[in-house]
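subagent[fold] <- orchestrator: predict structure for attached chain, return tokens only, no commentary.
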Amino acid sequence: MNTTTESSSLYDNLEQMDIPSLLKNINKEDQKVAFAVAEQLNEIATLVEQIVPRMDKGGRLFYIGAGTSGRLGILDASECPPTYGVPFDWVVGLIAGGDPAIRKAVENAEDDPEQAWKDIQEFGFNPNDTVIGIAASGTTPYVIGGVKSAREAGLLTACITCNLHSPLATAVAYPIQVVVGPEFVTGSTRMKAGTAQKLVLNMISTTTMIKLGRVKGNKMVDMQLSNQKLVKRGTKMIMETTGLEEEKAKDMLLQYGSVRAAVEAYYNKQ
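subagent[fold] -> orchestrator:
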């Protein structure tokens, strides 16, 4: 059975399919992703159990990748500060080719096995850091070189890949191998593989932030108030928690800067 990310698509003559058939078959393939992720829940849990105490001691979480994988890491990392109110360097996404590669492919950038470690070191060295390499194929030199150097330096290393027994998986202490099989368009790993990586990244960062105390109940009490929608959401959270009227709840939110601080101030005054 062909199960690698480079295996030929299960579907032939895509250009001859009508639009409803194309959509139906893409969706059929997408439905396989969550089941593949579920098979790795124990591995994901084991990794997060290692990450949390390290970050609690001041460690950072680095994602390194190229192309789609790198962009997904940057996406997850960039959403942590506004969602959880954490410093921008708690979770860091690095992509082969640097920031220009976020929008436009940088030729040959992923082929340098030394560059990822150089990119990580620009943030300084912390023995409690964690480095997670993201590569659908598990063969990207930028990623493999980065995790190897990180591991040699004593850091916690892990990976998210979609092929079994890849060079990347063997290079890290905690491999997460989500086997989603052939892509609908042969080799287009921005599809099922990318979806799988996004799901795993969501799990890692969300669970880590919850265990670090960045969620109370089920609410983002430390979220940044960067737009009116979030101010309204924060106001509603305070109203639900304290019983305050909307105007007073909003005033406290804007005065104290976060739901957590406003609620604590309210109860400290009681």
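orchestrator: received. Logging for downstream: The radius of gyration is 21 Å. The first helix runs from residue 19 to 38.
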